[in-house]
Write a structure and sequence with these properties.
This protein has two domains: 172 residues, Jelly Rolls (Sandwich), CATH 2.60.120.810; 106 residues, Arc Repressor Mutant, subunit A. It is built from eleven helices and eleven strands. The longest helix has 18 residues.
Length: 286
């Protein structure tokens, strides 16, 4: 899994420069269950979304994260959990280098993980920050690397998630937004998730939920932290990233995810993730 190498990266930022690179480990049992490591860099990630649940551990420096109208600074050793498809931003603060390890946990595995340790998925927070949870990562990394079956990996993940959620060190928990009171937000998100490869004018979204355009934008931004168009771009970038993980050509990726062309994809991808799609594919292939 290269956790030893990741530690070395975290301890030697001067050797890595500020551009940084990814290291990557993928489960042999579950597609999409993976660790990615970003070596010290100074990028701040604009609002983006991920299909899996993610937990990110800060390995060096101090990271800044944002969700809706909340902001946190996370010291080395801290963790940040964000639920699937929840827009969030974060990265280096004041241009000072950071490094981190992120666990991508596919949403479809959550029921099995919850059943393994009796976790209540209905109470799973949409965002949770924790201080001093680095040991959970180290233990999980060892167990995932040594696991000889899918069941062993599920057990390791369940123990880690349970430990993360009960930790009371520097806790911040945010429950899922109450979309029941705002059915328009739920409907618009579903529309954008289903039609990410298409241009969907705000007027069309407003008509679908029978709301004024400006009110819809304000309602959506309050619930998610970003307006509908930015959410659409974030969904496209996540789908594009997943296609790039499967080593599909950038022309194919751009055409399949609603970008005008490869340069359009590259511009948005680099603006959000601080690296070009081509460099991302090369780093993830290492």
């Amino acid at each position: 899994m290269q956790m030893q190498q990741e530690d070395e990266l975290a301890e030697n930022p001067a050797d890595q420069g500020t551009a940084g690179a990814f290291l990557h480990w993928t489960s042999a049992f579950f597609p999409g269950l993976e660790f990615t490591t970003r070596s010290p860099h100074t990028h701040y990630y604009r609002h983006h979304v991920h299909d899996p649940l993610e937990i990110t551990w800060v390995m060096s420096g101090t990271a800044h994260v944002a969700y809706r109208d909340r902001h946190w600074d996370l010291a080395c050793g801290s963790g940040f959990l964000v639920a699937p498809r929840e827009p969030h931003a974060g990265g280096a603060r004041h241009g000072l280098p950071i490094s981190f390890v992120t666990l991508h946990l596919p949403a479809e595995l959550l029921p099995s993980i919850a059943a393994c340790r009796g976790l209540d998925l209905a109470r799973l927070p949409v965002v949770a920050t924790r201080a001093a949870v680095r040991p959970l990562l180290d233990t999980l990394a060892d167990r995932m690397q040594q696991a000889t079956s899918a069941g062993e990996q599920i057990e390791a993940l369940a123990d880690m998630l349970a430990g993360y959620l009960v930790s009371d060190t520097g806790t911040t928990l945010m429950p899922a937004p109450d979309e029941a009171g705002h059915p328009a937000v739920h409907q618009i998100r579903r529309m954008l998730d289903d039609a990410y490869e298409q241009e969907v004018p705000v007027a069309e979204l407003a008509d679908a939920v029978h709301l004024h355009e400006r009110y819809l934008i304000s309602l959506f931004k309050t619930a998610t932290g970003i307006p509908p168009h930015q959410y659409l771009i974030a969904r496209r970038l996540e789908r594009a990233r997943r296609m790039m993980d499967r080593h599909q050509s950038l022309c194919t990726v751009a055409a399949a995810t609603g970008f005008t062309d490869q340069s359009h994809l590259t511009r948005h991808f680099k603006r959000t993730f601080g690296i070009t799609p081509g460099a991302y594919q090369r780093d993830m292939g290492d």
